[in-house]
Amino acid sequence: MIVVGGEALIDLVPVAEPPGALLPRPGGGPYNTALALGRLGAEVAFCSRVSSDGFGEGLLAGLRAAGVDLSLVQRGPEPTTLAVPSLAPDGSAAYRFYTEGTADRLFALPPSLPPGVRALALGTCSLVLEPGASAYEALLRRESRRGLPTLLDPNIRPALIADPAAYRERFLGWLPYVSVLKLSEEDAAWLGGRIGDWLAAGPSAVVLTRGAAGLTAWTAEGEEYGAAARPVTVADTIGAGDTVNAALLHRLAGTAGPVDWPAVLDFAARAAALTCTRAGAEPPYAAELGLSR
Fold this sequence. Notes:
alpha/beta
């Protein structure tokens, strides 16, 4: 089983008609990653705190439909976090968040994860908003120390980060506990570090998403690999990076021996391209990528 920890929220996605209208869609980087893993046929559990309001019920229904295990989900009466993306002409999204007093930021550290967990993935808002951020950080450190492979996607949302310098310092403190660091070019530029320094701090690989330029991976052994992006008609890029997370985890979790990075990256590029052809975070199903569930 792969455990994905982090927020589940509602994206209020702009639609063309009527003018100014917003369509509620399930979202949140970790939520999208868990959903994508479920659709790919992976055994996956979502670890979060989800509101008992109508949005929360809808979020959990989406995960159930994808076959995601919800036994690690905590519930609370607080409202669901809302995110309002604004879309650029190329389909890329910037976000405004409504997080005050919401359920997901009150996540508490679970006493343990189920037996047989093969990997843990964390990222996005859940590592920023306290007190939940400290609980997720404790989960990362605890599970890494016991030998569990981990994936971190910082998925930077500058509007949520009150003290960028403190966040960058905290990010460096996570790296010794990270097996695979995945981030976008924009994330890397905001963090201001160098890939070689991040690798030296602990991860066995850094994977960088580069939009239309594809994906690149660097390993601790000094190797570099790449995969081209698939040319598609882009509806928007919401959830594309989260689909990359899922594709990486699907191919890497439990892998013994050398990693076939070109094949792993190509699979991630194909999966992300399909997500980009759909409005909102709608990752592909196994059959669309030639996989059997």
